[in-house]
Design brief:
Lipocalin, about 30% helix, 5-stranded antiparallel beta sheet, 2 domains, 9 helices, single chain, alpha+beta
């Protein structure tokens, strides 16, 4: 097969000739296109795409996992007034304690009161005026060791007011404002002390009866209330602190208050020893220590440095000194407040009335 020189155009009849006879230039051979070593093959492209896809899914799963962990471990901010209202009202025990009366068997159709129990009779007569009970039926006979008994029968209005065995005068409470101390963490549990003001919601009309208001001024005569509340959270939701959480939160709050008082210059006229007496609730500093008996009710109570004793019941308690009052706290009991009248007389706040007690020497 003839070839032509690409340089001079001369013809060569030799098929195997490699050089032109006329000019000496080499004959060109078929040149294969160079292979790009970096160009990916089809298999390489598919494998790379799979790796990228798997890596993307792994990153997405990791982001979702981090988001879930963050959601379930992130502690919500301290509740505002509206959120705190919901928390307090959802706790039925707490809400009923603020809006219901105890002390008598309100879950019974009939309540019996002995004639010498003037405090209970006065209260039941007021409930008669409010329409919650009918006029009492007097029973019993006269004698040296017997007394008249008065039986009060519940009306439909009275039955409607009973909730969980208590006489309830409101549906719940509304928090108006709240302030919090710095949250603390103990054993992965967040503890928080707040001070809030509130008023009743859905107050019953009968609760405004003057006779009832006069007997329960601390509950029915006031329109605004203030108190402390302790909250706890071990996830991302706050709730009312109970049991050991409440005890720990209260102790931490006392330590914080003591630190604040230690950092405050002493200006009271009682001197240094009187100032230290306000910090520590020992026997000498606590006016409740001793034995007391009710003037009208006959109830007998004794206070020691660590316990409250009533009959055979001994309850470990702690004391919190306030202005002209002492708050007694038990781990499984609601707080009791005792107003200090003088060295020998105190008033126990029994929710719907004040019980006078005198010191037993």
């Amino acid at each position: 097969m003839s070839k032509f020189c690409t340089s001079c155009g001369a013809k060569s009849d030799e098929d195997v000739a490699r050089f032109c006879d006329a000019c000496g230039a080499s004959f060109s051979t078929t040149i294969k296109p160079p292979v790009n070593p970096s160009a990916p093959t089809l298999n390489t492209t598919i494998a790379t795409a799979k790796i990228v896809k798997i890596a993307g899914i792994a990153v997405l799963v990791l982001m979702i996992l981090i988001g879930v962990i963050w959601f379930f471990t992130k502690l919500a901010s301290p509740p505002d007034a509206g959120a705190l209202s919901a928390i307090l009202n959802e706790d039925k025990v707490f809400a009923d304690d603020k809006t219901c009366l105890t002390g008598l068997q309100y879950d019974k159709k009939t309540i019996s009161v002995l004639g010498y129990d003037s405090v209970s009779k006065q209260w039941m007569d007021a409930l008669v005026s409010a329409g919650l009970y009918g006029a009492p039926e007097k029973t019993g006979s006269a004698g040296w060791f017997s007394s008249a008994k008065y039986e009060y029968t519940q009306t439909p209005l009275g039955l409607k007011a009973v909730r969980n065995g208590q006489l309830c005068f409101a549906n719940g409470i509304v928090v108006d404002s709240v302030n919090y101390a710095e949250p603390r963490v103990v054993n992965n549990t967040h503890l928080l002390k707040g001070h809030y003001s509130y008023h009743y919601s859905g107050l019953e009309k009968w609760a405004s009866l003057p006779a009832l208001v006069k007997l329960a001024p601390n509950i029915l005569a006031k329109t605004q209330f203030e108190e402390d509340v302790f909250l706890s959270a071990n996830q991302h939701a706050w709730r009312i602190a109970r049991g050991s959480d409440k005890k720990t939160a209260r102790e931490l709050a006392k330590l914080d208050e003591a630190k604040t008082e230690l950092a405050t210059p002493v200006t009271n006229t009682g001197g240094l020893f009187a100032w230290f007496g306000n910090l520590f609730t020992g026997v000498n500093a606590n006016p409740l220590i001793g034995k007391w008996i009710g003037v009208d009710s006959g109830v007998a109570i004794e206070f020691t440095a660590t316990d409250m004793i009533e009959g055979r019941h001994i309850v470990p308690v702690t004391y919190q000194m306030q202005d002209k009052a002492v708050v007694v706290s038990g781990a499984a009991h609601e707080d009791l407040t005792f107003d200090i009248v003088d060295a020998d007389h105190i008033l126990m706040d029994a929710r719907f009335l004040k019980i006078t007690l005198t010191r037993v020497n």
